[in-house]
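job 3f2a | input accepted
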Amino acid sequence: MTEKLKILFLCTGNSCRSQMAEGWTRKLKGDIVDAYSAGVETHGLNPNAVKVMAEAGVDISSQRSKLVNEFMDMKLDGVITVCGHAHETCPYFPPRCKVIHVGFDDPPQMARELAEQGADEAQQLDCYRKVRDEIKAFVEKLPENINSRIA
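job 3f2a | predicted structure (151 res):
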């Protein structure tokens, strides 16, 4: 039996995108990937991320916002940064661990911008749904879509 890949999804605050990626990976690829998420800071679990993931049948409500330091001693196969800030500030991982960047838009920022333009809550949630679905599409292709970078 092949050992599962250990992948950490890293974002700034581990509140939304990385949490969604962890949830999707556990649901869709849990048989071949052990998924984790963390942030370079912790901002708590975003309630709108929880809400839109639940709409898609994925419960992330028991996940928690974690600092990347919790994973520094873990033997990871890969770290996937899902936002630009985390990619730029990603700490050093051992050479065996590949770090790649797959950026996704920031749903809270997109929702705030829409709110400033008068968008209602449903329109703001659509920002989360869009990113949720983009992350799902990425995860569905794991590990093939990163095999060339994680060996």
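job 3f2a | The mean pLDDT is 91.
job 3f2a | closed
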